[in-house]
Amino acid sequence: MIVVIQRVSEASVEINHKITTAIKQGLLLLVGIEESDTSSDISWLSKKIINLRIFDDNKGVMNKSVLEVEGSILVVSQFTLHASTIKGNRPSYSKAAHPKISLPLYNDFVLYLENIFGKKVSTGKFGADMNVKLVNDGPVTIIIDSKDRK
């Protein structure tokens, strides 16, 4: 799994010109799932994300987690994170998992995050054409690939 983590002061998802979900301060997570991903990837990433100290403390140092600032989380599926651009100019998405595999893993990821976060996690709509709007705070953007943990 690849997750692009963006610290935001606000973020929203719009589908068919209607805002379907929105958060204030917190994290926007863009999630790409590949065929080889498992519950182990979900567990490791979720714990890493929840505890990432990327919010400022009272001295202006990134030393607090989303839990500590009582922020929100918005999760959006994004298969294009697994794009391969090695050959030609048209990206290949062959590493991205088919929805039969990725949808259950996406749902499990959201549920696992909610369990350790202790509150509801907002989501986009899996597979939908979405407009994701955000104000990146910092800007702070971090990319984590669960395959790099070993």
Q: What is the fold's blueprint, element by element?
A:
Layout: E1 2-15, E2 18-23, E3 26-32, H1 39-51, E4 55-56, E5 62-64, E6 72-77, H2 99-117, E7 122-123, E8 131-145
Parallel strand pairs: 3-6, 6-7
Antiparallel strand pairs: 1-2, 1-3, 1-8, 4-5
What is CATH's topology name?
Answer: D-tyrosyl-trna(Tyr) Deacylase, Chain: A
CATH homology superfamily: D-tyrosyl-tRNA(Tyr) deacylase
Q: What is the CATH class designation? A: Alpha Beta
Major sheet details: 6 strands, mixed
Overall mean confidence score, pLDDT: 95
The quaternary organization reads as single chain
The appropriate CATH architecture is 3-Layer(bba) Sandwich
Molecular structure report:
This protein has a single domain, classed as D-tyrosyl-trna(Tyr) Deacylase, Chain: A (3-Layer(bba) Sandwich). With 150 residues, the chain is an alpha/beta fold. It has helices spanning 39-51, 99-117, and strands at 2-15, 18-23, 26-32, 55-56, 62-64, 72-77, 122-123, 131-145. A hairpin with a 2-residue loop joins strand 1 and strand 2. Helix 1 (39-51) packs parallel to helix 2 (99-117). The strands form two sheets. Strands 1, 2, 3, 6, 7 and 8 form a six-stranded mixed sheet that branches. Strands 4-5 form a two-stranded antiparallel ribbon. The mean pLDDT is 95. The radius of gyration is 15 Å and the shape is globular.
